[in-house]
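Section 5.1 Outputs to date
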Amino acid sequence: MRYLTQRYSMPDDRVKATLTDIGTEELAHYEMIGTMIRQCMQGATCAELDQAGLAGYYTMHDHGVFPADPNGVPFTTAYIACTGDPIADLSEDMAAEQKARATYEHLMNMTGNEQILEPLYFLREREVVHFQRFGECLEIIQGIYNGRSSCSCRNARRRRP
C-alpha cells in the first residue's frame, strides 16, 4: 500500500510505474504469506495454538489470517509512509525492502520445512530486486532535482540562481 500511495507524488513516469509494479507485487506477497500462515495453522488444536503462544490470536480470529505483527499488534495505515518528498520516500522504501529481506531470513532460520522455505527464498530474492529497483528510481529522482536533499515544496523545485 505504501508504494501505491507514494506513486502519486513522483515527478517521473518511470518511477510511478516502478512503484505501481512493486506495489502490486507486494499484494501478491501478502497472499503468499497469508497462505503459508493458513497452512501452518490448519488443523492445529486449541492446545497447540496455546502452546505456540497464539491463544489470544485464536480467541479473536480462530484460524483466520489477520494482519498483525508477531506481538499481535494489528496492521494499521500508520505503517504506510508517504512524505510527498520523493527522495525521502524512496530512501525509506529501500530500507523497508532490506528490513523485509532480513525478516524473511530470520523466518528461514526458524524452520526446516521445505514447503515454507521455498516461498521464503523466493520472497527474499524479490526484496533484493525491489531494493535495486528503488535505488534506480532514487538515481532518476536525484537527477531531476540535481542532488537537492528536499524537493517537496514549490521553492525547492526552482533552480538556484
